[in-house]
Task: inverse folding
């Protein structure tokens, strides 16, 4: 009999793709989500799926989680990297407080594994590329700092209470059901105005992008492999793509012509916003040693996302 898995944030972008995969593999899945970012689930009628609508900031809601859970995928978080500029309190409560509350439940539960989706933003403006997991973390945004704080809490809880935990530092994950990020934003702007396209920053921001199917494959590979009390893995492709090139792909794939690109120039050396990490490329050798490689590079991941989004819209 397959084990029962809790997925917090299971109705979100990455979460729903993970849930679909787990259900296809005949796992029993419990989704915990407040649906604040919508509902991407497509398998609500599966008999091996249970959905709990709740908020991790509320212990009464957390206590609705069944005591039969074997493993936890913790994906619930505030995904908006730029929100810290106007509302750092939301980042703190939805990321750090929620993770602490879930860990309090986890320490007393029969669940053994805790898989956490962290972020490449924990590294900040590193000078080491590709960036291995051993690189010192110096986040430059409150979002990145909140993810790093969650990592520390998870490591401490797993060591203290004899559990197995892992933090996964994700590159930019893209796919057709994502409702934020450069691809979604640019396509929406083009729909509103196909003549003049405003682009944040100077266009030279250069980062790694990973298609969501590759991300889910990595999550599962690590989940099936880990046995240490606590570990950290990077998840990303071995390539980068600049913002200017992403925009060109979007314009080309969307069939627009005579689009005038307008770069805002950005802040602090061409960043899109305060706290934006301008360059990111993760070293994923550690993940590759356990048998995982991305099927798509950054450019192909972007192109496939645009193609799939076009079919939806």
Result:
């Amino acid at each position: 009999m397959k084990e029962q898995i809790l997925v917090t944030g299971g109705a979100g972008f990455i979460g729903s793709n993970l849930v679909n995969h787990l259900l296809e593999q005949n796992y029993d899945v419990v989704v915990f989500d407040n649906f604040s970012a919508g509902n991407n689930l497509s398998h609500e009628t599966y008999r091996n799926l249970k959905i709990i609508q709740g908020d991790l900031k509320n212990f009464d809601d957390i206590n609705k989680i069944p005591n039969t859970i074997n493993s936890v995928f913790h994906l619930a978080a505030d995904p908006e990297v730029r929100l810290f500029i106007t509302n750092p309190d939301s980042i703190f409560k939805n990321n750090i407080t929620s993770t602490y509350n879930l860990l309090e439940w986890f320490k007393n539960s029969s669940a053994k594994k805790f898989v956490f989706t962290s972020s490449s933003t924990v590294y900040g403006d590193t000078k080491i590329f590709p960036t291995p997991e051993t690189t010192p973390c110096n986040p430059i945004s409150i979002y990145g700092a909140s993810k790093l704080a969650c990592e520390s809490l998870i490591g401490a809880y797993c060591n203290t209470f004899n559990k197995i935990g892992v933090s996964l530092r994700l590159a930019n994950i893209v796919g057709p059901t994502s409702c934020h990020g450069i691809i979604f934003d640019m396509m929406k702007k083009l729909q509103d105005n196909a003549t003049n396209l405003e682009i944040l920053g100077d266009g030279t921001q250069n980062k790694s992008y990973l298609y969501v199917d590759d991300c889910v494959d990595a999550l599962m590979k690590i989940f099936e492999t880990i046995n240490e009390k606590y570990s950290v893995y990077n998840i990303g492709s071995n390539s980068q793509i600049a913002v200017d090139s992403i925009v060109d792909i979007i314009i080309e794939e969307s069939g627009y012509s005579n689009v005038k690109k307008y770069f805002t120039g950005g802040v602090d050396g061409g960043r899109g916003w305060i706290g934006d990490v301008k360059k990111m490329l993760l070293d994923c050798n550690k993940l590759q040693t356990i048998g995982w490689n991305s099927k798509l590079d950054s450019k192909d991941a972007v192109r496939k996302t645009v193609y799939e989004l076009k079919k939806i819209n």
